[in-house]
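Checked the freezer inventory, then went back to the computational side. Two predictions to log before the end of the day. The first one is the construct we discussed on Monday; recording sequence and tokens without edits.
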Amino acid sequence: MKNTRVGIVLTWAMLVMSPLVVAEGSTCQSPAPGMPLNLDGCKAGDSLILRQVNFDTDSAQLTASSMSFLDQVAKELKKNPTIKVAVEGHTDSIGSADYNVNLSQNRANSVRFYLTSTGVNPAQLVAKGYGFTQPMADNATGDGRALNRRVELELVGTLVLAPAKPTKVYISTFHAKPDQLVVPVGTEVTWVNYDEISHDVSFEGAMGSRIWTSPWLGNTYSLKFDQPGTYNYRCSVHKDVNGTVVVKPSVDEYVTTESPVYGGQTMSSYKANQTSEPYGH
């Protein structure tokens, strides 16, 4: 009888510990508190809960700490440019189904637009709000509702990247070609000098750099553009060597509206149709 009892205790202990063993051995895990997101080992179908992403009450407005964490998420997504993910919003069950679907979609949109605003390729991200249709805990308790209010990142596929846009300007016969270069934020543009004389690249009066000459060897000067805008340049000596670099933001148009019911809720491209009941989320 004693041996049987010991066997039952050992079996029970193994069953309790087995989920921990699986979690520790997993190569794709949700980030622990205070830790950045790591997509190493993740594959299509994996889903990670982002507990560090939170919002103001009854709102899709990200908290300051959430933005700081999402900066790390953006860095990881840019490091893995072929990964496509779904940003998924979930709520608790307080309030109507329609309200919660709208709120969760709003929150998923806010995360997506924040990530794209930091330079993540919009094609890497889709946003979906599920309301309270996919609970992971009992909505009858406060702790359960807190667990159900969450943002998840699900890996949904792989992107085939388009060919890169031109990032070089060629200087030859005292002209710069192309005379206008359109690039996204964060691009490093390189000027290649094929003339038999040096050129100074200056931006609206501010000296850039001299591209020294080694005839036909293509000496270069490079500059990274981290801010959107239009940058006009020319050689300070040879005026025909001139052109424009147009730097576009990662999101060409960022539209925000205010909810007619909950003031201060920021949304993007969202048609507000919320109820006016004062729910707590």
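The second is the one RB wanted added to the comparison set:
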Amino acid sequence: MAGVLAGCGSPVEVPPGEAASDPTCARVLQATPDELGGLERRSTTAQATTAWGANPAVTVRCGVLPPAPTTDRCLSVEQPDGTAVDWIQLESDDESFPDRARDTQGSWAFVTYGRVPAIEVVVTAAHVTGQPTAFLVDLASAAQISPAERFCVGADDVR
């Protein structure tokens, strides 16, 4: 039992994003919840990162490279006030898919679209009881702190 508890107490290894020192990232991370999807927050090894749950943990990195315009799946997560955060769902064969997520069978990776600095979320299958996108709903208010410069465009938006 002591070994299990010690494993939960050690920091989660998460590499920093390229722009982790952006002051906006500090505000984004301060706005993330202490509990996410019933998982408790854990410490991490890098600036502008946080994690929840036992290994493999659900992780957030602020300051990752913003994605260029893409045809990858875009999810708009709406807030009660009518604002939305756009997230690109990265496919496992995408070169920007995080290596640490590749090592964990069945992980999902999402990155904010049109926001600088960009925010990456890796959701591991071990912590999903419903939809992996449920974590994005809980993180949307923190992600909104990073200003939106572009938005996803759907087929109905193009004429």
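For RB: The beta strands are 35-36, 39-42, 49-52, 58-64, 74-78, 84-90, 108-112, 118-123. The longest strand covers residues 58-64. Let me know if you want it refolded.
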